Input
Amino acid sequence: MRKSLAAGLRAGIVPLIAGVLIAVGVSAGDTSAQDNRARTPAYNQRLCYNPLGTRNGFPDLDRTDISREYLQAVASGCAGVPQRTGMQNAQFHAGQANRIIGEAGSPTALAAAANLFLQVSTSNYASSALQNIARLELARVYRLQRNFAEAERVLRTVTDQSDLGRAVAFERAMVVVSNDTTSGISDDARRVAEAGALTQLSIFAQPESGDRPNLYVRYRGPQELARLASSVGRGAMEPPTLANTQGAVEKFLLAASAVELLPPGGMTVDDIRNNARILVDLGRAQLRLAGHGVGEPDFQCRPGIVSADQLAMPYASFQRATNRDQNLAEGHWGLGCVHMARGETRQAVDEFNRAKALAPNDPQYHLALARAYVSANPPQLDSAIASYNLAGNVQGVHVEIAAAYLGITYPISEREARNLGDKVRTASQANIGPALDHLNTALSSSRDYPTAQDTPNALAYLLRGMVQAHQGGAQNLETAQRNLAAAAFYDRYEAQSWAAEANYQLSLLEQDRGRAGDAVAAADLAVQRAASRTWYRTQACLVRVRFWTSLREGQRASARDYCAVQSKGTPYENAEAYLNQGLYQLRSTFSARGGDQSRAWAAAVEAFRTGVSVLGDPRRLDGNGRTLRAKLARGNNDALACQGNAGVTSLLIDVGGAEDIANATTFFNSYGLADRFGTPVCSARRN
Output
């Protein structure tokens, strides 16, 4: 069961006592209250009979310049006046003074206040307006006494009046916010209660317009709105779906609107910091929302993921936070994250250093700084390692250090994951040893059975297996297989993405070892766990192409789906999808008969040629694009040879230079698409 709402709010933001909040009102520029300070009348029993708000009556007793002695004089003096006209006004003043004293920690004063407000609210001699205000005050006292049922009952008797609208809305919300005794209610019921309280408090997201000035709620209202909205926003952040993130942003925007109505000039240091943290929460949620736009719902501090226009709002939120509190480490961390996302590593390093200086014992700032150093161009590995070491023995730090040695930015984004194998293969040999040392350290205390907290272990097994696989040699490959299999076992919760990657890498390894069944099974598991990653489907396709002759009919049939053109990505990704389709059609001719075989060759030619067209002008291609085009051209030319059209020069496609030809040849050989089972010697296979 979730914590009660009030408990959750207390855990999230330090509660503010009444005196502090009202002090904010006066010292933040409440001119009328400041002017009245010099005119606070000496207590005189005659004043007790005057109605509320009269020029010669009592001041607003909720003002912070009203001393406790003055309040005690009003509480005792006005309660003991002789009976005469206006006595109900005196009882109200005495009740208000007792309520203020009681709120500071006097149960006896609260009990006296409740009795006095009850008398006024039921007196036939009190005006309807005074009765109404007395009921509101009585409900307030019942709430302070934690008699929430009576508070709700009395609030229902308060007649709506324009000058009490904000005060009534505040009390109705605070009955819910303060009630932490109903922890046994269902989560759904509590969410409904929270939503109702938030609706009531939403009035405080706008400046006052027409309500009678009420110091009790003028600054408490926006502060409680900020607290509740930010608490609900935090609860809405998980799981990190798009709808949840949008809902969280809406709540944090509401909280931020309330914060803007609380000028920081007269607040305590804690008030300023807590309100600045609300703006940090808004920035975090906006960063996550920006991450959804690029398929990164778990967006963290990563370089070059989100475009600049998507980062304007979170940057503004973090900037507002640091403007309110220059010493807020979280605000500088957020600015650093935005700079990281923009690829502005130098500015990110500056902001993370500010955060680290303000909170030197918080490991997250050392980690953020280390990641910025790794992301620099060129990477500042020595500085990164030093920052990682300062982070201490936090969970996963050894895995991050190992990733840094391998040139991998952590946390690993989906873009990084796509090129994980290339990163490991091209890592400096001098860094392989230190990387393995840190991976071994990370795994030395791992538990026998994975839990939701074991994501670092899953990644450690994965990286260690990949390094060993690329070191080669029978013994290393055997050890690599065990490590990748261990990583693939972590298939629950947040470790599941690494289980998917481990299965993908395991499929590549088993393919190199010639183990058809294991390679196909691992490729299929990778797709099942992360179907959105197109390169997993590519491997599930190509591994079937590679082992076509030894697969069962069902495994061959499933190649039709895995090799289908589904990509709607970049021109490169789309061309790669057509390559897969062409390879599948080319390979299927091995077992096809008659017209089916001829149609498969024709389909292969069409797929290869379409892929070349999708890639576009060969003069504009980078190295990867040229390599892919060479494969497509080789496939087109071989399929034409199988058709018997090798002599039709106009249909042939230039494969490229010597290096491109060599790459394409190696690729076709590795997938069994050459020699007697492949191309271009196809006559023996015509069925």
